[in-house]
Amino acid sequence: MSEESRVPFETEPASLETLPAPLEMRPSRGVSLFWRTFFFLSLLLVGCTVAWLQTYRSLEYEPRALQSANQLASLVNLSRAALVHSDAIARVSLIKTLASEEGLRIAPREPTDTFRLYNVDALSRNVAERLRARLGPDTLVAREVNSVPGLWIGFTIDDDPYWLLTDPSRIGSVTGTTWLIWLGTAALLSLTGAAVIARLINRPLKKLSFAAGRVREGDFDASQLNEAVATSEIRDVNIGFNRMAQRLSKIEQDRALMLAGISHDLRTPLARLRLETELSVSDAVAREHMSADIDQVNAIIDKFLDYARPDHIKTDRVNLNQVVDAAIFSTGQDPNTHITTHIPPNTHVLGDAVELQRVFTNLIENAIRYGRNADSGLVRIDIAAKAKDDAVLVKLRDHGHGVEPEQLAQLTQPFFRGDVSRSAATGTGLGLAIVDRAIVRMGGRFALANSSTGGLAAHMKLVRATA
User: I need a labelling partner for 382 at 20 to 30 A (CA). Which of 2, 223, 225, 409 fits?
Assistant: First the structure.
């Protein structure tokens, strides 16, 4: 085997001097319907949750501020009244009782006291304003006095200033951490609900996609969908799809029966014509031409049958070296045809051995028919292969004149014969179409490209068989 087989011929015109074929061109995969549905549902639910929480917070501030201000004002007024109407001995006992039982601390307010106003958020500022409205404009609401944190309320008793220290939780403000926990919980529940809804919506579509893939592979029995689902729209789609699959299955059976009948009904009279020709035609030249015409009709029937083969085939591990050697042997030993192979030993692919041999036979016959050198009458064909990742890349090229670039995409169309120089040969125009269909049925890809030094090259990407 030549060292040229290890040259990266897929992307560089190196070993067989062939321009790269578009084997990797395929439509880019977008975001799946499940993720699109999940994203939009999540966006909607999270947006609604955030809007609801913000609305709740906005509507909650006013009544919460009013309630907290009223409670604090009542607390200050009650403490003031108790201190005013108690004697000196009872006042000390009252202050101790308030501190131990109610968590209230009352202390004189000194001119040297330092404090920080309680204005941490909109709620605290609102409460402070309402307390000043209830208790007087000289009322102070602080969150720290002399570096001691708490809820400090400055008030007066008989023109004497006092501090009342109580728990800041009496204002009842909800901290940012609490709001964050609420928001996170609501978002998590929303996302979980969105995922469940998206999965329920996309489950019938996923089943439909799987069934469509089975129909594409020709497996009509495994493509039946449930016609008893609860959703009326999905039920109608499933019923319509099942009827379509049944009709396609019937058409496929009718086609196979028709092809078998055509093969039998045409080959029988052709066999009689061949026998009659051999026995009744005395002119050797005429007999030879008639036999050639009968052989051509037989070949045309074979091509039609090959092209109309069912799409569903079973792939197996195939030795590429043996398939190529068998295809070369089946084309005969023409002294004017030189075929060179550069295939690493023991190269295995997934496919059908008969189909794969038919592919290489058609490509070699096509190269012999159209790639002959007009001056020398010789046909040179190069076949190379290399393994790359999970695929085997194969290239077969001739050294003829190639085709017009605008005709490359049409060569795999049924009954298309290429330019005028190539249409001089007889045939059905199905050879490359058969090759393309067979490779696709085996899970591969097929493309054609002109060689940089003349001739046409066939590029194949086959599934690599693991050991």
Answer: 409
